[in-house]
TrEMBL record, chain A:
PANTHER family on file: ARABINOSE-BINDING PROTEIN-RELATED (PTHR43649), DIACETYLCHITOBIOSE BINDING PROTEIN DASA (PTHR43649:SF12)
UniProt record similarity statement: Belongs to the bacterial solute-binding protein 1 family.
Pfam families for this protein: SBP_bac_1
Stored SUPFAM superfamilies: Periplasmic binding protein-like II
Organism whose genome encodes this protein: Neorhizobium lilium
Classification via InterPro entries: Bact_solute-bd_prot1, SBP, TAT_signal
Name of the protein this chain belongs to: Sugar ABC transporter substrate-binding protein
Signal sequence residues: none
TrEMBL record, chain B:
Entries under InterPro entries matching the protein: ABC_transporter_permease, MetI-like, MetI-like_sf
Membrane topology: Multi-pass membrane protein
Native source species: Neorhizobium lilium
SUPFAM superfamilies, sorted: MetI-like
Compartment list: Cell membrane
Protein name (record): Sugar ABC transporter permease
Family: Belongs to the binding-protein-dependent transport system permease family.
Coiled-coil positions: none
Transmembrane segments: 58-77, 89-113, 148-169, 181-199, 240-259, 280-299, 336-358
Amino acid sequence: MKVNDFERMMAIGLSRRAILKTGASLGAVAAAGSVLGPFGAVYAQDASLRSQILQVPGVGKGSPTDADWQKVGEMCLEATKKNVKQGEFAGVELSFMGLNNQNLHNVLFRGFLKPWEEYTGAKITWIDLAQADYNPRLQQAIATGTVDFDILEMGAPFEGDVCGKGLASEVPDWVKAQIDMDDYVDYLKAPVGTWDGKTYRISVDGDCHNFNYRTDYFADADLAKAWKDEGHEGEWGVPKTWQKVQEVTKFLKGKSIGGMEAVGYLDAPKAWGGFGFYFLGSRATAYAKHPDDKAWLFDVDTMKPRINNPAWVRAIQDVIDALPSEAGDQLNADPGTTAFQQFLAGTGSMVSWWGDVGASARTSDSSVVGDTIGFDILPGSDDVYNSKTGQWDKLASGPNHAPNMAYLGWGVYVMARVDSDEKRKKAAWSAAAHLGGKDLALWTAAYPSGFQCYRKSQFDIKEWVSAGYDEAFISSYLASQLNSYNHPNAAIEPRIPGIFQYYSVAEDELAKIFAGQATAQAGADAIAAAWEKITDQLGRDKQIALYKASLGA
Amino acid sequence: MLHTIPQSLGPVERMIVPPGSARRGKLLLVAATVLLFGVLLAQITDVAGVTSFGFVSWRPLLSGYIIWAGALCAAQVMIRGEAGQRAAFVLPAVLFTVAMVVFPTVFGLYIAFTDWNLSAVAGRRFNGLDNLRTLFADRYFWNALLNMVYYVLSVLVQYAIAFGLALLLNAEIKARKFFRVAFLLPLMLSPVAVSWMIGKSLMEYRFGPAATLARHLGWDNPAFFSTPWLARSSIIAMDAWVSIPFMMILLLAGLQALPSEIKEAAKVDGASGWQSFKEITFPLMLPVSITVIILRVIFQLKLADIVINVTAGGPGGATDTVSSFIFREYRDRSNVGYGTMLAEFYLVIIIIFVALILKGASRWMQRDN
């Protein structure tokens, strides 16, 4: 159904629910082989609903608004209706805690859940938190026993803190069926989302850092000629290894493209509430994550940090070496700056980030790069450090790639405090299931939402193309994610309590290193010493056990 | 005729305490105190696992305290009559301060001597002087404290500018009222808004007007936050922009309160403008100036918001402040015990520092007089 047809039906007084109900009924008849034939099929197929929601508001038609989020929420309500009667949760009040980064996350959830509230009769109150305030708010609630929320948007790294302390409610079977949990990409299946064999999480996001680059840079004839003239090895093209990323970044210093200053890779040296550490991690995994070893951040048996081993030190040194060739104020750039104020605003040719960059490139008002960006899994390395032998190995298969599964995606969790009241429990899980629905997932991956693909069903290129995406663009974008998720040497983040404390301390030391106050090795040694202290403070034995569990070791 | 006021009469007729009232008052106070300590004991034994009342929070103790406070006020009136009434006017403020300031400070002192990381399995543990030892060896804390010295010294420059502006606005200039309001506007802005409007927009490297202007003026790389001294100066400039109006308005009030006769007499005696300022205005303004500087120094010691928003303490800790460091220790690392030790230690430093300034200023003023 076209959006304008949809709007016209609205104008003549048909409710969205009625339209969908009619569509579903007609579809049922059509599926049974009735004479309605192709007419029924138009409304019947799930594919029809999926293509309809992708037209809200339409790719290239600016950023979605609250009205669009509500519209999509309404259109995706059918799954809820199969398990919940109208008005079944009248009188139930639930509290939902989540983020409001970039005016996304909770801001969208409000819109998605408004039709759900109208249908079920439940009411949701919201606790919105900035990214940096999220961790302390959650930790305080856990430590002081003041969990004042029923539903929680949370990343898998915190599962040790929440699920390990018995604060979460187990996902009921009817919810697993409603959201089709088997559709999750493999790396988000157990043990992620589970604790002691029980499932606690509804995924709404899958996470990995991918490599975003400007296609116009690497198709530019003048740059290609200059590359050759300067005697660089190989053809001018998208770097496949971090060694090449370094070379290209230094090469671009002082060059111009389209009359503008050319800039290579964009590092994020400024602290970002612990989240900035992921970006050094993306540079380091290819050096530090050996295919024969699941661990890459700590030694499994001792929790001895690897941050000061030659692999990580090389990654830190790479940043030090590249910074003078990057933008003039790069030292004051955090990841929010590199993605949204630099790369999407036209500065820089390469950046590692979550899927938000690709999702925003053509659907956000603030993006100027449009279709001139391409995607790949994170660059590899010609050699990889082997922690067991202390040697750099060159793999027979070629460069070592190790996509960084940074943060493992956002999920929705229900707190155990609702378990004592069946009505509240069902209401909370129904709300969570609505947000984790299969069709809604397609929309959140296609538009700015803070979430990227996490289901196998989201990788159907045809759906994206019919929504208005350029085929080459979206194929490249989705492939970068799917190939990261399915990579045999993916670097999986430890789900251990206090992981952001490690990252935060590292950010402080890294800031000093990047400002020239310490060498890469001395700074890395300082980080390692600080990490050892944190491990001791949190309880080494417990951390080791949880780290092993998170690696499936 | 003698017009004398008998000694026994005050401005308000004394209230006579009825017989039995004092006894009932004492009884009330004892009952409320027993209730308070009973609830306290019940809550402590509940937390310790000795009893199982099932308290979910410390709210019952708070209720007990409020009841005890009410009983204390009532008992004062019942026992002491008029004197009790006078006490009842002050007691709510005292009890509120005890609950909201004294108790948290003392409780904070206890927390400061514990190892309490919110993610730790062991929970809160008393760890003696460990936090203090960590603090003395903490390079980040001492770096932040050194930065505070620079930030505090900048108050003197802010004072000089504020004094100049106050003199200007005190003079007979055109549109004086407009300028008075205009110069006050930055004070009305939240420092967080200033961080975004100026630090992250006007001074933004790529499209910020300040950066563009700097390029036109020949500065190729107008990165305001990428080298230590430039970043520190930029933060100081932003902070000054918000704070100078505060100093200016207090100094302006002081200038307007100066007797004009002295300046007119100096003018008649042929004193130049500079002589008049140096010998009359500045000395007369010293008490106001000292007050203004001390207030600003106290505010400056709490500087955090602009730093957190614009530089996050960087580059390499060059703009870090003690408050922003404490904020990180709490917020990002959930390190409550050590964070509280930092805050309590900093409080002691501030108290000593401000006391010394006050003492020094007092001596200087006396010597001047």
